[in-house]
Amino acid sequence: MSPRQINWFKYSSPSTFYPLAGRLIPWFWMITVVLIAIGLYLSFFVAPTDYKQGEGYRIIFIHVPAAWMSMFIYLVMAFWAAMGLVFNTRLSAMMVQALAPTGAMFTFLALWTGAFWGKPMWGTWWVWDARLTSELILFFLYIGFIALQGAIDDARRADRAGAILLLVGVVNIPIIYFSVKWWNTLHQGASVSLKSGSSMASIMLVTMLIMALGCWAYSIAVALTRVRSIILEREHDSQWVSQLPEVRL
User: CB neighbours (10 Å) of residue 115?
Assistant: First the structure.
């Protein structure tokens, strides 16, 4: 069967997505372990010492992918939220709920690794820099979404309220990305750009991309694992759930 003949819409149903996610999870965990292991080895033992920042620059191999993922996951959540509002698909809201803790974790990681990098480079752990402040707002958006979901008992009302919060908060993503261009900020500009290419050494760029792909694979593996639990929780009264071997056991 060719890709054009595949009915992708059938996977919007929790009953068909659940087994698909189960088959994909081991593969993404394997990809995660391989890429992160290679990326960390290159980060600490292969990438050269930066002539300006010394050995302390190596934290960017964790900081930058984490910052990228913090924004990307939010955009993916906003996409799923919009799909849920437009098409009223149950799986969309479940995917949003599954992604939120991972997005919050990467945002927290980006903030803390940025602080560890900023102390020796700027002489302070924190400044109310445009990019740092907007990234902190992103963290609050994640926490606010998680808190809102937990505060509303009715799942459908919680999904709609969370979706509206996510779509309103999307405006913060371009602010984070363009903050170093729009305002006078301590935060350095992008070292990797689609227009101007990369100002980094090739081995540094390769290491950064490997770590980013590893974080991407990790996010998918965790989200699929979490969404399977959410599906079982929300669909526990469905007949197809009662027929699952893991549920019968």
Answer: 16
Residue corresponding to tokens 């996510």: 166
Note the pLDDT of residue 96.
Answer: 97
Residue type, 34: V
Q: Could you give the CA distance from residue 3 to residue 191 in angstroms, rounded to a whole number?
A: 37
Half-sphere exposure of 144 (CA within 13 A, CB side): 15
| Cα 99 to Cα 103: distance, rounded to the nearest angstrom | 6
Maximal C-alpha separation, the chain? 63
CA 20 to chain CA centroid, Å, is: 21
Q: For residue range 194-216, list pLDDT tens digits in order.
A: 454 455 678 888 999 999 999 99
Q: Of the candidates 203, 214, 216, 187, which has an alpha carbon nearest to the alpha carbon of residue 44?
A: 203
Tokens of 47: 């990438």
* Mean pLDDT over each residue of the chain, to the nearest integer: 86
The closest alpha carbon to 129, from 173, 176, 171, belongs to: 176
Residues 110/68, Cβ–Cβ less than 8 Å: no
The first and second tokens of residue 28, run together, are 């993404």
Beta bridge partners of 197: 193
DSSP letter string over 21-39? HHHHHHHHHHHHHHHHHHH
DSSP class of residue 49? P
For the question of whether the overall pTM of this predicted structure is more than 0.85, the answer is: yes
Strand partners of residue 198: 192
Alpha helices in 88-171 (DSSP H): 90-122, 130-151, 155-169
CB 87 within 8 A of CB 98: no
Q: Which two tokens stand for residue 36?
A: 């992160």
